[in-house]
Amino acid sequence: MISASTHSQLTLRLKRILDQLSEGLVERDTLARRVLLAALAGEHSLLIGPPGTAKSALARRLHLAFSDGRYFERLLTRFSVPEELFGPLSISALEQDRYERHVAGFLPDASIAFIDEVFKANSAILNALLTLLNEREFDNGAGRIRCPLVSVVGATNAVPDDEVAEAFFDRFLMRLPVEPVSTGRFAQLLASPTDTGMAPFAERLSREDLAWLASVTAEVRVPDTVIALLGQLRSALDEMTVSVSDRRWVKVVYLLKTAAATEARADVSMWDLSLLPACLGADRESQHQIATWLLDRLGIRMAISPPRLTRVVEAFEAQLAAELKANDLDYDADGRLRFSAGDLAHEVGDAKGGAGALRMTYQRKRRYGEVHIEARTAQVDALIARIARYAAEVQAQAEDLAQYATASLWMDPAFADAARNRLDGTVLAIAALRERAMTARAGFEALPRLADGQGTAPDPVVHDAWDD
């Protein structure tokens, strides 16, 4: 059994295994990462896509990453019978009035299995698979036997919409849409070897390796910040009408802990949540929704979000505009309205209503004392300082992402690029808001001032509450 001192060696071994899994398969690197991670966590993967997209090639390679146990593979059709998966009935057992199967060499005896066209089987087979996939147990006659199953990779062209299929679909923690190779990589596809090969892997994992990894995974901590974000996501999924069972949430957290353990981390990182779309979304559309939700929040606290900061800056800009437009009536020392011919705001001669009396008013732009202006500029200075701290925090998150993505075995490079672009955009947006805040400060500094007197302190500018 490997020891904790060889943790980094396991990480290097996993990197080499990942290279072997995806070697020669164009645009299947992320799929290989997901399938292997699911197996390390003791979970199952489902590849969903049209024929001829290397689903079976990738699934068949997975068992080469493990040195112990048997491999089982079967293509199901609507005519498939339970004997094809679970083994033939035992004649000798029947003679003794026992209904048992010979499971050696079949799915209950396998550690890694590939089941192609999983949803083409009838409901009897799918129901029998439910317990085997989830509890690793198989009802054989009057008894229930433990199965050595590590992971099943399923493949299908489409997921049917019925109750039995939905329950079976939920047993696959990783739901991985597979598309044909993109136009940009088409030439590479044509130049790739036609023989994907089944040569033994140079690196393989033993049951002792898996047991040690499980013990390390159990010690990984999930920070409160990650738990809080998962809670927010759960509420968001309700609004997206994406259904996620409690069992799946528990399995997802264990998968996140496994990802951290394989990289010798004591805590789950918020960037590990990039794995969630494939675990929570049932199809490409829902997975895209979840990924977008995560990109809007990973590395960006609510108080740092540009929309919220924009509202705060706009509150100061609106206050400045109001103070610039404010007018006061001008009275002299005796309390009489001060005016001159050039200062009349308006003059009305009303011969009919007041014996030709003149009605005169005079307004001037409001002037502010030093106390008022200093209070306003101090408020903006506090805002600018807070924005500077936020900018530094987002920049630190971008650097943390860069380090994580470089070291991570499991992060999808496309998600890492999208997250990096989102953080860079946030940094630019915060910088623009800082400039607007500086302009508002200059505006408060330039307010018309009282000729004498310090004035009074104003009420603070009202804006959304925020966290530091």
CATH class of the largest domain: Alpha Beta
| CATH T-level topology of the largest domain | Rossmann fold
β-strand amount: 5-15%
Total discrete domains: 4
- N-C termini distance: 47 Å
CATH homology-level superfamily of the largest domain: P-loop containing nucleotide triphosphate hydrolases
Which sequence of strands runs across the widest sheet? 2-3-6-1-7
Low-confidence stretches: 331-335, 340-360
What sort of overall outline do the alpha carbons produce when their principal axes are compared? elongated
Structural class: alpha/beta
| Tally of helical runs | 16
Proportion in helices: 40-55%
Proper CATH architecture of the largest domain: 3-Layer(aba) Sandwich
- Tell me the radius of gyration: 34 Å
Most strands sheet: 5 strands, parallel
Oligomer: single chain
The pLDDT mean sits at 87
Order of helices and strands: HHEHEHHEHEEEHEHHHHHHHEEEEHH
Number of strands: 11
List the topology elements.
Layout: H1 7-22, H2 29-40, E1 45-48, H3 55-62, E2 71-75, H4 82-86, H5 91-95, E3 112-116, H6 123-135, E4 137-140, E5 143-146, E6 151-156, H7 163-169, E7 174-177, H8 186-191, H9 207-218, H10 224-239, H11 246-262, H12 276-280, H13 284-295, H14 306-325, E8 327-329, E9 346-349, E10 358-361, E11 363-365, H15 370-407, H16 413-445
Parallel strand pairs: 1-6, 1-7, 2-3, 3-6
Antiparallel strand pairs: 4-5, 8-11, 9-10
